[in-house]
Every structure is written in C-alpha cells, then in structure tokens.
TrEMBL record:
Domain of life according to the entry: Bacteria
Record-given protein name: Sulfate transport system ATP-binding protein
ATP-binding listed as a keyword: yes
One MF annotation (Gene Ontology) recorded for this entry: ABC-type sulfate transporter activity
UniProt cross-references to NCBIfam families, sorted A to Z: 3a0106s01 (TIGR00968)
Length: 360
C-alpha cells in the first residue's frame, strides 16, 4: 500500500521533532530512514503507527487519512529495537498475541489462530521453537519472533525501528537479507530506521535522509551516495573528510592539501570539498620523504586496506590496494588527491565533481 506523509509537523515543547516532513512511499517499496540521533526518525515512525499524532500535516495510508484511525485499526506491523516480547509467554503465545488483541470483529477463532501462528513460525523459519520462552532462544531468533508477531495481523505496511540493533554483524547480515526476501514475497511496503548506512544501502529501494526534522534527500542508495543533495548529506554518508577551500578560475584550492589542482565547474568563491576515501591515493614514499604519514591501517574486504593518512596536519581516510606490507602506522607515504565532491557558495544545490588536472 502507498504511504503519503504530507507536511507533518510535530513539536515537543520548544523542540521541533518534525518540521514539515513530506514523503511518499510507493506500494511494495522498501524505504530506509537515515539521520543523526534526534533528527526525528522515531517520531515519524510512531506517527505512522498511530502511537503519536502530528500537530499539523496529514498521513494517508492506502489513500485513507489516518487522523482519526487508532493504532490497532491501521493494519500496520511494528517492530522496535527492544522487541518487547512477553517473557512469561511462549514463542507461540507471543506471536498469537497480535491476533488475540485484534478488534473483536476481526479476531480469529482458536483453531484459526493455531493454524496462522504455525504458518508464521514456518515463514520466519523457527517452527521448532513454538513452546520455548523468549529467554530460551537466541537474539536472532527473538528477532524473528518479533517479526512473526508483527506480521500476524497481515499488515500491508511494516515499520521497523533499528530491528537488528542487538544482533552481531554476521547474524545481522543474514537476518536482513532474509527480511528483504520476505518483504518481496509478501509484497508489503516497509519503512526501516537504521543507523547502519551499509544496511540501508543494501536493503532499501530508496533512502530518506533526515536532518533536524526535515527530509533533506530522498532517492536511491546510489544517488544519495554519488550525488548528495547538500553538504550535510555528503558529510553524513561515508567517510568523506570535509575541507573548506576556494574556487578560482575553475580550480579548487584547499590550503594544507598537497598541491593537486582540482578542476571544478563552479563559480569563483568559497567552496566546501568532501574527499572520499577513493579520492585519496596513497603510495609508498619514494626516495624523497613523501608528503604524508600513515596514522592507521587496517585490512578491508576485497583485498584492500583502509587507512588514515596525515598530510600537513589534515587527516584523510583512504583506500589502498592490499599487499602493501609497507603500510603500517608511522610509515611515510605519498598522497595524491584525484578528485573531490565540491559544493559551491551559490547554495547547497551547486555540487560538482572535481577532477585532478593532468600533471604539469
Ligand atoms: N516524548 C518526547 N518528549 C519530548 N521530546 C521528545 C519526545 N520524543 C522525541 N523528542 C525529541 O524530538 C527529537 C526527535 O526525536 P526522535 O526520537 O524522533 O529522533 P531519532 O532520529 O529517532 O533519534 P535516535 O536516532 O537517537 O533514536 C529529539 O530532539 C527528541 O529529544
């Protein structure tokens, strides 16, 4: 089902948690909400779930205005980080709970509940755990119980607030892939809050980025990564280093960086540059001492090394090809800047890729 959020404002005293949020989710879409702590993500989810209400603005689910619709009539499944499973109830009863608390008109009989819970436990692949208590299953299994409970009411919209927070990295990867498969199979619409950017990029069709109660970008993962709409987004995503500089005659100048004229199609004036790890090339220092020093190096996937290099007092994240035995803390190196993402002074919308000019 579609979800339309129109100019939603929510204030708590002097704090504006949401300052006019508009967002439309297509039916069947998986959307991730990203943003710093306090940017309004949970408030937005609570408003969709009917656990909180906007001061102004509208929420439409499947085209229907939700203003007067209480949480339990919205047909929305919610999974929060702490799962909130009932410890004194078996896994079976936890999942059945979602059905037993439905409004009387929609409440199934006992035989139906039995059948439905069995189906759900099969769906989340833990049929053998029905009679265990939450304390007797693993974190990943508890997560599946929480999902089964949320899915029990056959929601068309699934809201997930940091659902994988308590899982270790390996289980987390498994569970999220499985969740995306489940989302596709059921044809539901899902909205996920996460602090894990990699998770958002892997799972979501589109990513909404919140900054202080406003959506500053809503686009596909690859678009937000390669074409961040504002300096805030560029700084928030990835490991880019932010540096202030000047554009003069189509060339970016950043004090303290190794001399590397970067061509950029921006008007003259102050500019903000974001150097991403792939923009920073690190090679061993040659016969001369090099212009930088390795401050930190660690192995990364795909036979690469991640490192932090220091050049003229500026620390930059960089990627280098592995096999670099020389790349240890304190080693001298040569740092070359081959590009940057640059925002001009004319407004946040003016962004350009800078490219290294050919060597003189
Ligand atoms: N019940 C409340 N009373 C007062 N202030 C609140 C309440 N709920 C949220 N806020 C404030 O509203 C703002 C947004 O909070 P919210 O929980 O939506 O942020 P968030 O993006 O989910 O943060 P986090 O990533 O830390 O969970 C914060 O400044 C928060 O302190």
């Amino acid at each position: 089902m579609t979800v339309e959020i129109e100019d939603v404002v929510r204030r708590f005293g002097a704090t504006a948690a949401l300052e006019g949020v508009s967002l439309t989710l297509r039916a069947g879409e998986f959307v991730a909400l990203l943003g710093p702590s306090g940017s309004g993500k949970t408030t937005l989810l609570r408003i969709l779930a009917g656990l909180d209400f906007p001061d102004s603005g509208r929420v439409l689910i499947a085209g229907a205005d939700m203003a007067q619709v209480p949480a339990r009539r919205r047909g929305v499944g919610v999974v929060f980080q702490n799962y909130a499973l009932f410890r004194h109830m078996t896994v079976f009863e936890n999942v059945a709970f979602g059905l037993r608390v439905r409004p009387r008109r929609f409440r199934p009989g006992n035989a139906d509940i039995l059948r439905r819970v069995r189906e759900l436990l099969d769906l989340v692949q833990i049929p053998e755990l029905a009679q265990r208590y939450p304390d007797q299953v693993s974190g990943g299994q508890r997560q599946r119980v929480a999902l089964a409970r949320a899915l029990a009411i056959e929601p068309q919209l699934l809201l997930l607030d940091e659902p994988f927070g308590a899982l270790d990295a390996l289980v987390r990867k498994d569970v999220r892939r499985w969740l995306r498969g489940l989302h596709d199979r059921l044809g539901i619409t899902s909205l996920l809050i996460t602090h894990d950017q990699e998770e958002a990029m892997e799972l979501a069709d589109r990513v909404a980025i919140l900054e202080r109660g406003r959506v500053v970008q809503f686009d596909t993962p690859s678009a937000v990564m390669t074409r961040p709409a504002t300096p805030f987004v560029a700084g928030f995503l990835g490991d880019a280093t932010r540096l202030e500089g000047q554009v003069a005659a189509g060339v970016l100048h950043v004090a303290r960086l190794p001399r590397a004229p970067l061509r950029v199609a921006l008007a003259d004036g102050p500019a903000t540059a974001f150097l991403r790890p792939r923009d920073v090339v690190v090679t061993p220092a040659g016969r001369d001492a090099g212009n930088g020093v390795i401050r930190h190096a660690s192995a990364a996937p795909d036979a690469q090394m991640r490192c932090v290099v220091e050049v003229n007092g500026v620390q930059l994240d960089a990627l280098a090809t592995n096999g670099a035995g020389w790349m240890v803390r304190g080693a001298a190196c040569q740092v070359t800047i081959r590009g940057a993402l640059v925002f001009g002074a004319a407004g946040p919308g003016v962004m350009a890729e800078a490219e290294a000019a050919p060597a003189e």
